[in-house]
Write a structure and sequence with these properties.
The chain is an alpha+beta fold and about 325 residues long.
Amino acid sequence: MTDVVSLAAELLAIHSPSGGEGPAIDFVSRWLLGRGWNVHVQEVSPGRGNVWASRDGGGVTLSTHLDTVPPYIPPRLDGDRLFGRGSCDAKGIAAAMLAAADRLVEQGEERVDLLFVVGEEKGSDGARAANHLPASSRFLINGEPTESILASGCKGSMRVTVRTTGAEAHSAYPQLGRSAIEPMLALLPQVHRLPLPVDPVLGETTVNIGTIRGGTEANIIPGRCEAELMFRLVSDPAPLRAALEQWANGTATLEWGSFIPAQHFHTVPGFEARPVSYTSDIPLLGRWGTPLLFGPGSIHVAHTDHEHVAVDELRASVDTYVRLVRTLLAA
């Protein structure tokens, strides 16, 4: 049987940041071909693509992403934890899905597909492309680090760029100019006081003021300033847009960026479930069946220099994926 920890370590040893997933794609494709899967690599951009592996179809698809955020951190087994970039987000999950699918096939269940996408950490171009494939599955189990608990739903996201303008002048004569930074500094704290939507399952809408840029030199009155905000959505975005337009009116202009809607997911009796605050590729994979979200590891250590997954949890997740697939197919 496939050793999920060894397989995860092999995947972690491959540097595959968003845009450079080619070596991980090759590894997974060859691994699956060697076990008799029908493998299709869907090109997303030159040198990188989604891996879709199938057998009988019409059942459950296990899916996660092969790209990671930089910098590369090599795999390291320390006691009962496997460290490395992607150990929980999401190469450890990919290894668990591969091992679970391998076990299901050995046991005679071939109504399982695998879908590994690229680009999830940077725009989700892989998932957008994958939704054009002729999927036949009835259920999609997407993998993100949910601490081995089914997610009952997840918040969406929306990026907004806020811009203020002024008039440049020599700083010795401020009366001849108009600062673009000062109105931004007055505006941003007010965003936390806006009445934003609340959902009984997903909780509150939250905001992060992620970046702020303005001015050119200390001796020049700044003529431009901009800030990037990320909202975690729990509802339709229309109420948030209306609140922000009123908030910025007369002071700043708004540019709406990427948007992913909030989601409520399918849950299964007998499996613990709770909501999560982060987004996933699920909203972009609507053709792949009724969605579920599950994976080993914690989002709290993802993207950090101490990213890891517990070995026992990783092994147990293989059993859980098998049980989930069998339960869904039986239903």
